[in-house]
Structure formats: structure tokens, C-alpha cells
Give the backbone structure.
Amino acid sequence: MSDIGRFKRADKAYSFDDVAVVPTRRTRALEDVDLSWRIDALRLACPLIAAPMDSVMSPATAIEMGRLGGLGVINLEGLWTRYEEPEPIFAELGQLDDPMAATRRLQEVYAEPIKADLITARLAQIRGSGQPVAGSLSPKNVEQFAQVVERSAPDFFVIRGALVSAEHVSAGQTPLDLKRFIRTLDVPVIVGGCANYHTALHLMRTGAAGVLVGFGGGARNATSSVLGIEVPMATAVSDVAAARRDYLDESGGRYVQVIADGSLGGSGDIAKALACGADAAMVGTPLARAAEAPGRGYHWGAEAWHASLPRGWRVKFDQIGSLEEIMVGPSAIADGTMNLVGALRRTLASTGYTDVKAFQRAELVLV
């Protein structure tokens, strides 16, 4: 705790750039490393979730993500559930280079109402492929469309926002009661983002299967610059992992998955997130570089098209390879943006761990 002048005191917090994983006295063979991840009844080959962002996930890329061993989450309030044929809109957005013009156009196209029948159709398309099904809504749209999602029987329902709390207080409207809502659903829920111990503990008490840590990809810097809100991710993940440990004792053995969601630009960041205590990582930026990504190299989240207070620009990336190459290789780039699974496997092997749960005990140093 440090003094900020005479009135305020503040904790020191650390980002992923501030920490590094320390190797142990032994190494392991790559084939001995098990990256599989189990959440609720679903077992995945790797602990990677594709972020529910229109620039990354379409029904087709969600299916491909599942085939590659991860979990694809489709944005149920995105262009795929507002338009029967959204591809021409993606093509148009891909031609807009001016940031202000792009923001205005994003606000226009996202003003189209969400359609319940398209939510059903998109989730059914993924279900028909035999791959895991997951869809995401922001808290403000959850109650309106929850029954539509539940009837579609997804494997997971993701409630994702830049800042999510278990208790929203309002003098003018009846807020969403997450604890009551989640406990009435037959679908397991992943909820977030949060960035501190107490918020995470309250979210775990709602009955959620997993908690998202962070403010979601590119929203982090925008949330900081527009709202002044930010918690560096290494500290945030560690604090939420501590909440998971204490809730495990409090609940008599109920384990809630901690999922890092933000500041994950490449495989090294993912490894650090797991070493800080995360069980899995929700990634957006690395997947936006895939040739199949709907954004055609542009990447944006919900905060970029807010009708009155946009909090982030579209970001332009080079498309460096297929989704398969970015996930499982082979890599042609040595910067951690391709073969995310292979890099994570090598990190565990190089530091002497055979699974993610053991790797959470890895030693870290400040750099």
C-alpha cells in the first residue's frame, strides 16, 4: 500500500508484462502434458475460449473453434442475430478506414433490433455440427432473451460485460438479480467481467460455473481512458483465484472456474494468466488475425458501438494464417500469435508441469 499525496492510499498492481514464469529444476516431455479442461459437464482439449465478439466469432468459426479443441462463443446481440445475411455488412465495415466513420457506421448497424428467431437459428447451426454450443448476452439483454437461449439448450450461457456485478442498484428500474436468475436456469452460466476479490466472490455465490476476469479484450485500454477504470490483469487474476479458493471452503467444495478475459495478445500472456491462477483464457485478439475471422482483420467489441459513449476503436491487424494455424499451428511467426496450444504445451513442459492445475503453482518473478 502506497500513499498518493495526503488523502489516498493505493495497492500496487501488476500486468502480465510485469511478471514472468520461473522454470523449475525439471522439465517434461511434450507428450506428457495434458491441456484438457473440464467445466461443468463439458471436457475440452485445451483451456481456450473464443471471445464472443463479432470480429472473431461467426457460427462457422465457433464450429471450427470447437473442432480445434476449444470453445467458441457467439455474440447473441451481434450482427449474426440482428441480420439474416450479415456478410455484406462485414464487407462494408472492412472497407471503412476512417475511425470516426467506422464508429458511426457501427452505431447504425447495431441499432437494428435483436431477433429471437435468429438466436435460435444460430445456436441450432452450431448444435448441428456436433461441436460445443455457447452464446453470450450482456446483462441488459439477459432477461429479455434468456428463455430463447435456454430453449436452444446450449452447453453454456455467457453473461459478459465490461463491468459486471452480482448486485446492481437502481432507483429507476428493477435490476437483474444474478443470483436468482442463474439458479433458475437449467444451463450452466459463465459470468463477468470482474477484477477484484470481493466482486468475484459475490459472482461465485450466484451459482455461476465460471467467472470472467478482466474487461474483455480491447475494452481494457478504452475503459481506462474513457472511464478511468482499470485493474492490471496479473493482479486481477490472482485476486479472483484467491476468491475461488475461499469460496471452495465456504461452499463445502464447489469449484468455480476462473477465466482470464483481457490483455491476452499472445501465447505468453495466456501462460502467465494460467500461472497467476486462471483455469482457462478467453481470447479475442489472436483469433482476429485468422483468415476466417468475420472482421476481415478488423477487431472490435461491444464497447466500440455503444450508441452514446463508444469506448474503443476498431483495431486493424494483419491476417496471418488460418484459425487452425493460430490455434494449433504450424506457426510461421515467432511472436506468440500462432500455435497458441503448442506454445502453452511447451511452457508447461519447459517448467516441469504436466497439467494446468499444477501449473497454477508455478513461481513468478517481477521483471
User: Anything to note?
Assistant: The longest helix spans residues 233-250.
